[in-house]
Amino acid sequence: MGSDVRLRHASCEARAAPSSARIISTLDDKMRPVFDTPRLFLRQASSEDASFILELLNEPSYIDNIGDRGVRAAVDAINYVEEKYVASYACHGFGLYLVELKEASCPIGICGLVKRDTLDCPDLGFAFLQRFWSRGFATEAASATLDYARCKLKLRCVYGVVAPKNARSIRLLERLGFRHVRSMKVPGQELETNLYEAELKPA
Q1: Are 39 and 16 in contact (CB under 8 A)?
Q2: How many CA atoms lie within 13 A of 30 on its CB side?
């Protein structure tokens, strides 16, 4: 399964321009998109995505900018998906979603909302395989996630939690209208991180 997934990753191409999300509500299958954009589907992750999650979490950029999750084998990835992603869908009604290219049914990253015990509103999370950087996918997926948070979840604000050295993610948050609020400590991390906030006006 893993080698087939990586081959599909490598064949993916992007063509459409970013746009707002269109919420999907017609299918009952657990694999249906939660919402989509012209180029992307965003859907719930499942244990069947373990091969992709294993690859993503072990990319040097992920470990350097987000953290080392200690996921080194398929069984670790399955447990991580169940304990982090699936548990969030069940507990909060949202979480980090798998981002797929429509044209190739190819997973390229994750994007969604994370609820932390230390914050009163969820924060926007995203990570993409490095070979899909610089094509506008992160901006497209993140913008759609904010639309979903405002229109469907009726959230009043969304935070962004990002390491001060992660210049790419900071630029993305600022393009999306986030403003820096303060520095903060994240449990389990030695260094302080930056907290950003975006106010979501009612649709």
Answers
A1: yes
A2: 8
| Domain containing residue 183 | 2-199
* Residues 107-123: b if buried by 16+ CB within 10 A, e if exposed: bbbbbbbbeeeeeebbb
Q: Which residue has the tokens 């389990």?
A: 188
E strands, the chain, where?
22-23, 33-36, 40-44, 96-101, 106-114, 123-128, 157-162, 179-184, 193-199
Please tell me what DSSP assigns to residue 61.
H
CB-based burial of residue 24 (10 Å sphere; 0-12 exposed, 13-18 middle, 19+ buried)? middle
pLDDT tens digits, one per residue of 166-196? 999 999 999 999 999 999 988 767 778 999 9
Q: How many domains does the chain have?
A: 1
Question: Left if phi > 0, otherwise alpha if psi is -120 to 50, otherwise beta: which for 177?
Answer: left
| CB burial of residue 198 (10 Å; 0-12, 13-18, 19+) | buried
Token reading at 184: 């903060």
Q: What's the mean per-residue pLDDT of the chain?
A: 87
d(CA 33, CA 24): 6
Query: What is the domain-level CATH number for residue 110?
Result: 3.40.630.30
pTM of the model: 0.84
